[in-house]
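User: I'm writing a tutorial on reading structure tokens. Could you give me a worked example: one chain, its sequence, then its tokens, then a sentence or two explaining what the tokens reveal?
Assistant: Sure. Here is the example chain.
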Amino acid sequence: MKPIATLTLSPSLDSATETDALYPEGKLRCTAPRFEPGGGGINVARAIRMLGGQATAIYPAGGPTGEHLTQLLRHEGLEVGVVSTLDWTRQNLHVFARQSGEQYRFVMPGACLHDEEIHALRQRVASLPEGALLVISGSLPPGMDVADLVDLVVFARQNRLQCVVDSSGPALEAVVKEGGLLLIKPNRKELAALTGQPLETLEQVALAARALIQRDVTRYVVVSLGAEGALAVSREQQVLATPPQVKALSTVGAGDSMVAALTLKLAERASLEEMLRWGVAAGTAATLRHGTQLCDPVATAELVTQVHVGR
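And here are its predicted structure tokens:
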């Protein structure tokens, strides 16, 4: 199996609590906070480990919050590649209001990355073995723009790494323009923005995805279709996977869980159908859990057999 690493440029220490209801002015009595690692690539690495694989999480971290984040990851048995930063790692807050059943997510700005810290992250990437899969996932922090992200992707390719990118907006547009990726996972709206085409039907979605592949932007496009599942397209084929109907509790960890399963199966050289089946199953499994929790491996394995796959 190919080695896997993830790169998270704006990690977080996530705290979660519960209270009866949210209202202004008064004191809101909360439960004791629960702390979890946060950030796209970090969550992908955690989910890969949950599904039985191994991944190295590369990320910047600073201050007591950064130390706490790294402690949590090491406690989970995750291999980490940490770059120390001057700024403290951000801390996000997730609050569940029991009376309404609503979840509130307070997301803080990422810690600023300085030039020497970005260079240190590049060196971490350069130390990865040739042919490894590198998942770049999550938002960009202050001090880093899309040109820096493109430079990282180019640098990774020059070091013969295969890049999986899960991003959005200008960051996704920039890396797509550069091309040479292994896999991207846009949703329908993001794919429409990338191609400038209306995507009202699945056939239009498939044609738009194949256009990116024919331009050598990426080898695989997996288009997330929400509750409808996902469509995977390669140069040779396309596969549609539809999950069983479930009662979703939260969609927060679904995207990272899906990317984790897709990447793990890519590393195992699985077929496009198996890769997508596991990706949809893992994403669906994450929706069965509260808060920011990722896919449960037992639920994922059960859902794999229930995912309907067609061409």
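What the tokens reveal: DSSP finds ten helices and 14 strands in the chain. Residues 4-310 form a domain with the UDP-N-acetylmuramoyl-L-alanine:D-glutamate ligase fold (CATH 3.40.1190.20).
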